Every structure is written in C-alpha cells, then in structure tokens.
Write a sequence for this structure.
C-alpha cells in the first residue's frame, strides 16, 4: 500500500542532495531513521535501525567507485528483510548482478536523471518495501548490452520485451496492459521464455524469478 509507513535509511554522499531527499521523504510520510554519507555508516545505520528500505548511491567515499553497491550486497546477505533501492547516476553491472544473486524481490535500481516525478521514487520505495522490484528500463537495457547473452539471444523481440518487463517487476496482467495484448498472449510469451531458458516446472521452483535472474546474470556477466 502506498500509504504504509516506511522507515528509511538513506546513503548519499552529496550533502545537498541528501538533505533534499530527507525533506522529500518526510513530506511524503516516510520516517528517515538515518541519512549518511559513507558505506560504513550505511551498514551501521541498517544494523541499528532495521529499516524497511535502504536507499543507496553506488559511488561513495573514499574511492567513489562501488562502495555503495558493495554495501548493498552485504545488507542483502546480513539483513535480507531490508529492501534495497539503488539510486544512482551509474549502472554497475558486476555488483548489480551479485545484488540479484539470491532473488529479485525487494530490490530496486533507479537512475537519478530518469526519475521524472517524486511520486515515482516514493512508489518505487513502497514497491521494494513490499517485496517487489523497481528496475529502470535503461538499467535493464545496459545490463543486456553488457555481456554474454547466449540464452537471451534466442528470444524473439516480443519475448525479450516481456522478459524486460518481468525484470522490472510487472505481473502478466500489467505487461498485457503495457503492450496492449491479451493476458493469454503474455502467458504464451512467458512460457516460451521458460522453455528457451530450460526452466522446467516443479512444485518448489519459482521459474519467473529464475528467468529474471538468468537474464540479469547473463546480461551483466
């Protein structure tokens, strides 16, 4: 629910942007438990406050390379109940793939320059907190262009489009609406993706998550 109270920890090394985001989130009814500027401070804040979501920039002190997303991977391992929303100007494919290694639920990756409205950002926070995914299409596209795509290359253009939307967290019904096709048509495309990825139906396996993870792993390897 978009009106659910959220406890947020924010990691952003730009003081101006960090302060602005704190004001924005509080104005939208979120509790900002901590706002920090380094990866170690982020890890400490998550351990102390156990937020619903951690908002993480990738490039943070001291090297301004990948400290933030490394910390996000650590949070994913040590505090799996905490949602992760990477909010950055950059796509870091290697560590992004590791972030998704144990499932796509509760993770978001948004590019700062492509968020047109504050409502989009807040909606993404709620989606991630509720166990969904919030992936910028440009992030998905860059991952696709970044590495080996053996199984992805076997997909038809429509199957690839459906898989991209799956990776962004859309349901079959939502995909049908976005593509202006029937839900049954989407189901057929999804089934084709499963077949081409060699994902067999079992009672225990979630093929949808496995397909997205395989897509992200092959694209970002």
């Amino acid at each position: 629910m978009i009106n659910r109270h959220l406890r947020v920890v924010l990691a952003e090394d730009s003081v101006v942007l960090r302060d602005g985001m704190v004001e924005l989130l509080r104005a939208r009814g979120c509790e900002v438990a901590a706002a920090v500027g380094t990866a170690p401070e982020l890890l400490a804040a998550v351990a102390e406050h156990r937020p619903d979501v951690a908002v993480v920039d990738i490039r943070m002190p001291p090297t301004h390379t990948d400290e933030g997303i490394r910390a996000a991977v650590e949070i994913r391992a040590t505090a799996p109940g905490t949602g992760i929303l990477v909010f950055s100007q950059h796509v870091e494919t290697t560590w992004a793939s590791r972030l998704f290694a144990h499932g796509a639920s509760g993770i978001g990756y948004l590019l700062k320059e492509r968020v047109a409205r504050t409502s989009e950002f807040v909606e993404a926070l709620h989606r991630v907190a509720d166990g969904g995914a919030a992936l910028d299409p440009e992030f998905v596209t860059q991952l696709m262009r970044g590495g080996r795509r053996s199984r992805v290359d076997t997909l038809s253009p429509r199957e690839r489009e459906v898989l991209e939307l799956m990776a962004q967290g859309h349901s079959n019904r939502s995909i049908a609406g976005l593509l202006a096709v029937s839900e049954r048509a989407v189901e057929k495309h999804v089934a084709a993706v499963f077949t081409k990825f060699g994902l067999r139906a079992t009672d225990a396996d979630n093929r949808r998550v496995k397909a997205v993870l395989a897509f992200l792993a092959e694209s970002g390897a």
Notes: The mean pLDDT is 85. The chain is about 50% helix and 15% strand.
